[in-house]
Amino acid sequence: MESIVRKYAGTTARPGPALAALAAAQFTVMLATSIVNVALPQIRAGVGLSDSGTTWVVNAYGLAFGALLLAGGRAADLLGPRRVLLAGLGLFGVASLAAGLSTTPEALIAARAVQGLGAAAIAPSALALVMLLFPPGPARGRALGVWGAVSGAGGAAGVLLGGVLTQAWGWPWIFHAVAIGAFLVLVLTAIRVPRAASATERGRFDLPGTATVSLALTALVWGLTTARSSGWADPQVTGSFVLAAALLAAFVLVERRHPHPLLPPRLFTTGRVAAGNLLMALLGSVWIALFFFLPLYQQHVLGSSPLVTGLGQLPLAGANMLGSALAPRISRRIGAPATVTAALLTEAAGMLWLSRISADGSYLAGVLGPSVLIGLGLSIAFVQLTSLSLDAVRREDAGLAGGLVNTTRQVGGAIGLAVLATLAGSVTARAATHQPHLDALTAGYRLAFALSAAVLTATALLALLLARRGRTVDRAAANRAAALTRTP
Q1: pLDDT score at 280
Q2: What residue ranges do the domains of the chain occupy?
Q3: N or C end of the chain: which has fewer CB within 10 A?
Q4: Which GO terms describe its molecular function (predicted)?
Q5: Which of 114, 110, 58, 105 is nearest to 292 (CA)?
Q6: 3-class secondary structure for 218-273?
Q7: CATH, range 6-198+263-471
Q8: Sign of the torsion angle spanned by Cα atoms 291, 296, 302, 304
Q9: pLDDT value at residue 100
Q10: What is the pLDDT of residues 347-356, one digit of tens each?
Q11: For 332, what's the count of Cα atoms within 13 Å in the CB-facing half-sphere?
Q12: Cα 163–167–171 angle (5° rounding)?
């Protein structure tokens, strides 16, 4: 792998254009995650979707994306991240075009699932290329700052662009625009990212491990998304959870016996990868829910149009970009643990502020200020936790590490959204018996934001605990190394 890195580094004296291509790939993936949210009513009417079918326009993408990220990351390590990235972009673009041309619910949902498959190849391979292009140090910190900016901005821009395109040209153009973007990024990647990055690593693909963990994640995410509409006690929901647990147990057994496991133990030797992924899962549990509940409040309660709702995301996107740019500098000044903790608490403060929204409120009074706080905190925390999740990872595991951190964020988001949507729906249903409809809706949204603030506060405390434990482990390792050097 070292020869690959030397060859790769030697092909370009200006890594900026390559980083721009890779960041654009990540932006496209995040854009497709949120761009459909404000257009769902129009999509439902245009294709003839049922209530459950409308939900699966969102779920099909997230399900395929979350379940196949580890497989995409490992494929990037074995086949070369550049090759996998180009293939993923091509598949993603074709699926996006097919989604925009769909005339039946089945075709649209299938196209969204294939979109998720392409995204599962794009996200880990692009992040792996960033790691290859930028060695550990300030340069990588700045590159991850850019990565964080486009990740958060992609989610916010999806809401904005979805509103603009839906109102101007109709819902098919949200998918046509994503397809055009994917093909442009494919060309940019082919030109700017050197071919040296397509070299192949040694090892065999862990097919049994990939199959069991992908099916386990599929069952888990399917159960969580179904629970939002059917309830936690539904036999299909509980059955999917049981199946997920059984498949995860089978995955552990397969990994112990496979000579080239999908998740090699060396990935977790320092403890930082495990800690980073745990914290990222908790951050993801409120991240995806934010972009679900906030547009609903703006449209259903405040009465904003899709276009105005999208424009309302601009302050959040701007704060996100600012926070991502500042994250490396803040970390160098006060240290990574303090930066993560402060960022999580800042985001928690924004969520707590949002929990005070009212049915007769306004965007300026109830949404603008919290959006800025949330954007700053979310972006800084994301950059730092991504860096932690990739810390001390071997270059031959770069794709897998990128797939893992994306998986934990995606699965954490699915769990968080399912739980928060269920609880918010229960509160709304109870409130609707004695309150006006808009007040009942707002009560559910307030609960979701308040619980998100609680989760972020707990995550900040956990980050402090893990940082203290990590320093203790590092000191113990240093003492053992010193003792060995003194041994005659």
Answers
A1: 92
A2: 6-198+263-471, 219-262
A3: C
A4: transmembrane transporter activity
A5: 58
A6: HHHHHHHHHHHHHCCCCHHHHHHHHHHHHHHHHHHHHHHHCCCCCCCHHHHCCCHH
A7: 1.20.1250.20
A8: positive
A9: 92
A10: 999 999 999 9
A11: 11
A12: 80
- Could you write out the DSSP letters of every residue in 429-455? HHHTTTS-HHHHHHHHHHHHHHHHHHH
CB 151 within 8 A of CB 34: no
E strands, 302-446, where? none
Per-residue model confidence (pLDDT) at position 95: 96
Only one residue has tokens 């707002």, namely 442
Q: How many of the other CB atoms lie within 10 Å of CB of 170?
A: 15
Sign, CA torsion 273/275/280/281: positive
Residues composing the chain: 488
Q: Rounded CA gap, 428 and 430, in Å? A: 5
Which residue bears the tokens 């990220």? 69
Dig out the tokens for 12 from the structure.
Answer: 């370009």
Give the global pTM: 0.79
Distance CA 278, CA 273 (A): 9
- How confident is the model at residue 473, as a pLDDT? 47
How is residue 6 written in tokens? 């030397």
SS3 category, 163: helix
Q: Compute the C-alpha angle 404/30/36, nearest 5°.
A: 130
A 10 A CB-CB count for 187 gives: 12
**What integer pLDDT is reported at residue 477 of this predicted model?**
43
Give the C-alpha distances (Å, rounded to integers) separating 76 from 125, 228, 326, 382, 446.
5, 34, 30, 22, 41
**What is the token pair recorded at 439?**
């007040």
Query: Which tokens go with 406?
Result: 């994306």
Closest CA to 201 of 75, 312, 387: 75
Residue 464 CB burial class (10 angstroms; 0-12, 13-18, ≥19): middle
Integer Rg of the chain from CA: 22
pLDDT at 73: 85
- Predicted local distance difference test score (pLDDT) of residue 444: 93
Residues of the chain with pLDDT under 70: 1-14, 51-53, 156, 196-203, 228-229, 270-271, 469-488
48: left (phi over 0), alpha (psi -120 to 50) or beta: left
Show the tokens assigned to 414. 């699915």
Which backbone phi and psi does 52 adopt, to 5 degrees? -70, -35
- Lookup result for tokens 């070369």: 80
C-alpha to C-alpha distance for 261 and 432, rounded to whole angstroms = 52
